[in-house]
Amino acid sequence: MKIQFRFPVLCFLFLVLLNSCDKQESTTNDEIIGLEIHQEDQLEGEKELNGFQIAYKVAKKSNYYTLKVSINDVRLVASIDYDTEYIEIDGKSVVLSNKEKETLLMIGEQISEYLFKDGSVDNFTMAEFTLLKLLEYWAKSPSNYSYEKIIFKGKQTNLSKGNDDGITCIRKNTYVTAVYDDNVGQTYRDRKLVNGDRCLGRCGSGCPGVFSIASAWTKDCLDHDQCGRVLGGSTNPFDRNCGDEYSQAADDFLFGVLRGCRG
């Protein structure tokens, strides 16, 4: 009798211990990215990383997803309506240092690893998508770029400089003409092989991508990439040349994948 009684008790204790370990692992993973709230239409967290205090919050209200990201006292804000393809991004003219942009990539990579730890990258909420895409977009800005207000309303934008191609999909291993200009207005046209040089034409950082989530391949991102390689852009302090190409790619970063621009 004693042996028969002891076996179910041991099984029960094992299940309790297993469940406790699962909860502990989940809590540990949450702490890695500082996660405080994780719901379908809301994602919020805060943590110290790379010497900075990082806070992020994305939430849906009506049709708009609003994202707020802060790095110490620096704050970036964006509002997105995916139904009408409306974007408003405002950094109040702040200029991020290279270390601050590096930190945005670091927290984005950690969040990406947390969200897609099972290996699947096609199952995401729009709150998760908004956070990851804008973290990557902000981190990819040219050196000395001033985060002025950017507004896109479908094909309309408040950008006055440069040539905005809207969201034009391009395919890898095809030739497309990149068009960009310098700070004095001289236009450059280069026939380039998409994905032929360090993921040329992909809307995102790194090659392959830093984040797990899919990236878009578009004409505006090709223009910005080629501008950066020729005139400076993301790698040298010549924002006066490539800042407009970067701004024009904001809608490509957010809507390109949803439009099917996966290369």
Write the layout of secondary structure elements.
Blueprint (H helix, E strand, L loop, with lengths): L1 H31 L2 E5 L2 E8 L2 E10 L2 E8 L2 E8 L4 E5 L3 E2 L2 H18 L10 H14 L6 E2 L2 E4 L2 E2 L17 E7 L5 E7 L25 H13 L7 H10 L1 H6 L8
Antiparallel strand pairs: 1-2, 2-3, 3-4, 4-5, 5-6, 6-9, 7-8, 9-10, 11-12
Helix pairs in contact: 2-3, 4-5
Strand portion, in percent? 25-35%
Q: What is the helical fraction, as a range of percent? A: 25-40%
Morphology call: globular
DSSP helical segment count: 6
Mean pLDDT: 83
State the major sheet: 8 strands, antiparallel
Strand-and-helix sequence, N→C?
HEEEEEEEHHEEEEEHHH
Distance between the termini: 68 Å
Low-confidence runs of at least 5 consecutive residues: 13-18, 20-26
Domains (count): 2
Question: Which class do the helix and strand fractions yield?
Answer: alpha+beta
The neighbouring-strand order within the major sheet is 1-2-3-4-5-6-9-10
The Cα radius of gyration reads 22 Å
Per DSSP E runs of 2 or more residues, the count of β-strands stands at: 12
Protein name: DUF8213 domain-containing protein
InterPro entries: DUF8213
Pfam families: DUF8213
Structure description:
The protein is of the alpha+beta class. It has two domains: 35-153, no CATH class; 174-259, no CATH class. The protein has six helices and twelve strands. The chain has helices at 2-32, 98-115, 126-139, 219-231, 239-248, 250-255; strands spanning 35-39, 42-49, 52-61, 64-71, 74-81, 86-90, 94-95, 146-147, 150-153, 156-157, 175-181, 187-193. The longest helix is centred in the first third of the chain and has 31 residues, at 2-32. It is globular and about 50 Å long. The model is unreliable at 13-18 and 20-26 (pLDDT under 50). It holds the Pfam family DUF8213. InterPro entries: DUF8213 (IPR058526). This is DUF8213 domain-containing protein. Residues 177-262 form the DUF8213 domain.
